[in-house]
Amino acid sequence: MSENKTLALFDFDGTISNKDSFVAFMKFTHGTPVFVFHMAMGFATFAGWKLGLVKSHLTKVKALRSFYKGWTEGQMADARKRFTAEVIPTILFPKAIETINWHKEQGHRIIVVTASCDAWLGDWANEMDLEILCTEMELHKGVYTGELSKPNCRGKEKVNRIQQHLELEAYSEIHAYGNDHGDNQMLAIATHPHFREFEG
What domains are there in the chain, each with its CATH number? Predict the structure, then answer.
């Protein structure tokens, strides 16, 4: 094990951001009235998820089908570019960005591990020069199907993705930042877990 290699793992929604980026993206691309209509149509699924009766994977896929099935790569790229410029800067916790920059200054490896998709966070991660492990939307011949190409990157799946991406044993220190039970397993592998570090 290296004595000087440090890894910093960050959840995005509610940790780096002060609100859910998926909800923000749906409102951005379709408008609040359309968003509310779709959520009302899927109320049973959404309510079941909130009560713990429906898996978050099913809730996410239902929303992706409603909002983005049939979108082309070009449409998504344009929406992502505008969302990155117009919305993401308004929903970030300043302390989170300060901490990310501190880890950069220390030469630490930084990875954003999020249940949200690169379809709307990919450009931001690139601009910040950050690695990202995330939920991925399925593409078929350049068109989004509304399905996921990999399991929802939440809970245990966050740890699975991390372990597939790198050798944890290579890091003597691991910082992990999260804000809810979907981050618990990731926080558990850290030598320095940080829960709701940037709120307030």
Answer: 6-195 (3.40.50.1000)
